Description:
The chain is of the alpha/beta class. The protein contains 7 helices and 22 strands.
Amino acid sequence: xxxxxxxxxxxxxxxxxxxxxxxxxxxxxxxxxEGMASRKINxxxxxxxxxxxxSGFPTTKLENWRxxxxxxxxxxxxxxxxxxxxxxxxxxxxFTCEVYDLDTYSLTLLNGWFVYKHTPxxxxxxxxxxxxxxxxxxxxxxxxEKYLGSAATTQNASxxxxxxxxxxxxxxxxxxxxxxxxxxxxxxxxVNSQVPVLLQPRSLVIAEAGSELTLVHCDHALxxxxxxxxxxxxxxVHADAQxxxxxxxxxxxxxxxxxxxxxxxxxxxxxxxxxxxLNGGFTRNSVEINLLDPDCQATLRGLYLADRTQFVDNQVLxxxxxxxxxxxxxFKGILDDQASAV
Length: 342
């Protein structure tokens, strides 16, 4: 990997308790947060903000958080960027992935924003759309409105509510019925900041009936400043579609990464997901898979390697809401030094 530092972000500084600060910032930066999104999407944001205001950040009093204390992380003085800095961009200026013969549709988020060289949305002749979620909200509101937030519910899920309230940009993938993507989609989510920041990327993937796609999601940090990333991904897998999902996490020891991934599966669909946590100071992966119709198949695997004082928490919820479905999960980890895992 080769990299060099990007420019310092335009930021707003944290001087009050984080929950109060976020509520105030949402009000003060509403125009930037809403962007060009439709009224329906902005109403979704407002509902999520109310849910977050009611629930606040999760504490160890909650059953699925009782071994995971994030109070120290929340005490940091984070800064925020609400300006859309998406612009023509040469990724090679800061990051090069030197994997021999790697052939993917390569896309990048830098500090939560989709960056690109030619266009924020790639539209293929076969109807496939890949690119910036913010731009998709503007150009394809009928697709985004139909799906966004319908799998990642915000009630009793405070981090998802927080992300939904503040979501501005991320990855958007739409694969029409019967289309099989020839190459994997590789999303490289890069964090590069000289100040502590809180980032909230949001991604939406839609695989229509009979389609096939592979998504490789890489979380990578170029700087060593404390950063909290609260990432939400929704994946909709329609009848007889197949989605293969790989998440590779390679962050710095000062990084905190929360990922919430939601799969919504329909009749005869197949999902295979693998989460690999290779490095990171504090990592929590939450996966929810909903098998809504008969004959769905879901396979979930995880691998974590942690040393020093690193912490890894993997939470899995698989809902069998229909008969004749199959699910399987296997997680393995290696801990060294004072590292711990849940």
